[in-house]
Each structure stands twice: as C-alpha cells, then as structure tokens.
Amino acid sequence: MKRATTTLADDRQLKLGLFGANCSAGITMTMVPERWDASWEHNLALARLADARGLDFLLPIARWRGYGGLTDPNGYSLETLAWAAGLLAATRRITVFATVHAPLVHPVFAAKQLATIDHIGRGRLGLNIVCGWNPEEFAMFGGSHRAQADRYAHGREWYEIIRRLWAESEPFDYHGRYFDLQGAVCTPKPYAGSELITMNAGRSEAGRQFAVETVDCLFTGIENLDTADQVVADVRRRAAAVGRPIDVYSVAYVVCRPTQKEAEDYLHYYAVEHRDEASLEKFRTINPSEGDTNARLARWAAGHGGFPAVGDPDRVAEILARVHRAGYAGLALGFVNYLDELPYFCDEVMPRLERLGVRRSTTGADGEGDGGTHAMARY
Ligand SMILES: Cc1cc2nc3c(=O)[nH]c(=O)nc-3n(C[C@H](O)[C@H](O)[C@H](O)COP(=O)(O)O)c2cc1C
Questions:
Q1: The whole model's pTM is what?
Q2: Separation of CA 132 and ligand 1 centre (Å)
Q3: Does 177 fall in a domain?
Q4: d(CA 373, CA 366)
C-alpha cells in the first residue's frame, strides 16, 4: 500500500518546502557574513518554524565534501538520515526527506535505517534517491564514478531490494547485476506497513526515465519559466507509457523584500558582488555540464541552479503561481538565511498564494504523522 501518494498536480495546492538547510551556505555560493550557518540548533529552529507555519516538506542535500574556495560551501553538512531522524522527533506534521546516495549506502542497511526513522516520524519520512554525480565524493569512498546509464541501472536494483525488504516477511535471495544477497529480510517495516513517499533528483533523460519507473516525484531543474511546462509534459508522457502517476518538483531561490528594487539589490549583493568565485570555479571543473555557461554559473552562485523567485511579495507569489500553472506539484525553496527570511515569506507570500488559488491554508493543520494526514498527503 502506498501512503499519502502525491498525484498529478492539477487540482491540488502547490507544495512548498525548504531545500539544503542541512548544508553550510545552504544552496548558495556566497561569502556574505549572514550566509547560512547549518548548525543543528539552526536546523531545529527552522524545522519547528516551517512546521508551525504550514510548509509541507524539508529536503536536505546529501554532500560528503564541500566546494572549496574561500568559504567551502556545503563543506559542513549534516548527514541526512541522522538529520531527518532528529527533526522528525522534534516536529508534528511536516514531511522530512532523507537524501540517500544509492551507490554509497547498502540497500539492506538503508531499508532498515529508513524504516526505523519512519517510526520516529510516525510515517512522515520521505526518501530522495540520488544516484550521484560528484567524482571526488566517489573517490572518498574508494569507488569510481559509474557511467550515467549504469548509475541508474544500479539505482533500480537498489530500490527494488529496498521495496522487497519492506514488502516481504520471509527472507529472500536476490541475484542481480550489482547485488547478490542471501536471506535478506527487514523488520520493522515502514510505519503502519505502507511505503514511503519517494523522490528522485535528476536532470537528464535517463534521470527522468528512472524517476517515472521508480518513484513518486521527480525533482528537476527549470531552465526557463517559458518552457517549464514542456518538462512536465514530457514527464507525464513517459509516466503514462509506464502506467504510473508521478509529480514534478523543482527548486527556486527566493529573495523577497518589500520592494522589487530592494530584492534585486540584495540578489546582486550576495550572488554577484560577494559570490565565492573560487568555489564556483571548483564546481565548474567537477561538474562541467552544469557550469558550462556564465548564466548557469550565476544560478549556482545564487541558488544551486534553481530558478529565481526574486522581487516584492506580489512578484514572488506570481512567479510561484506561474510554476504551479505550468504543472509543477511543488517547489523546494532556498534563502540566503532561512531563519531570518522565512517569516517574511510566510507572512507576505503564502497568503497571496492562497488568494491566487494555488495553495490552501494549512494554518492549524495538526496531523501527527499517521500516514494519512501528514503534509504531503493528498488534499
Ligand atoms: C533538485 C536537485 C537536487 C539534487 N540533490 C542532490 C544531492 O543532494 N546530492 C547529490 O549528490 N546530487 C544531487 N542532485 C544531483 C542529481 O542527483 C543528479 O546527479 C544530477 O542532477 C545529474 O542528473 P542526471 O543524473 O539526470 O544527469 C540533485 C539534483 C537536483 C536537480
């Protein structure tokens, strides 16, 4: 039984979450002194704030080393399974994802770890599967980086084993291309015997295909708002061909200020004047396909390659509504300093989104994570 499955976006509200708060500098590569300090205390305060203010999910970045340069963005990062366990114990309704590198965590370990954390959250854990791209991280684990098709073939076996461990009560043998297991079994199962909400973060065609065949949500980039609907159309075509529903999510960096000019000035200040050029250069060398143009690099400096939601509250709400109208089910948001900036976003942008009809109020929602009322559940 699939729990609280999110479906195609049309008649539901736009889900909103926070992205990357477990990592130093969050989703930015900036040197400004107020950049995000990802201490546990800050993460705890932020999760409680997001929970109380009706946000739907928290999504961490799985990172094993930083981007170097002067400030080493993401160099300090809280490991996402432990992070999710702690935050689920401290919140009441919000969905918390763990982001797991399939090639770096054995599926028998992952199945049990995830099931255990899901019990801590009473059914509010989500799983974001990443198949990996960063060669330096693979080298840290003593392995080599597989070619893309191979990465996703491995990911399919990895998640198939996890699903079987969650579904089957008897020990089973598994003989695949990447895994050869004898007598595999997992108890406990996820909370209330239902499966976790799953997400895959990928950008390529191979990533899309893996997502439609495997998970509930594809988390992908938006290159251009004018063509954002085409990505959703392509994903839906692929999903229809394999007979599975899937939602599409994306990432935005938010700079919301009382006036458009203030917002644009702040963006310029943190992402242009004070961007960490040395870490961006490092990023460009390890990820040449993402760092191939100045425009793309600028978006990495500003917000992990996400798209800009920059402006006064009316403008930011209109941008988010536009993404929703293009068919996206949800957005993971980043801020330079999440704790400083989230309250203004909640006060000013969320009510506007309700007035625009793309989001229903979740104020007063008080599910305690029974698998049917949590924040990613179908409305
Ligand atoms: C929104 C988003 C979030 C991602 N989060 C992570 C992450 O936390 N850790 C990681 O190693 N890769 C992350 N990635 C990278 C992807 O897993 C993937 O390797 C990359 O987008 C390349 O896509 P492809 O495999 O489809 O070519 C993320 C990608 C996107 C689009």
A1: 0.94
A2: 7
A3: yes
A4: 8
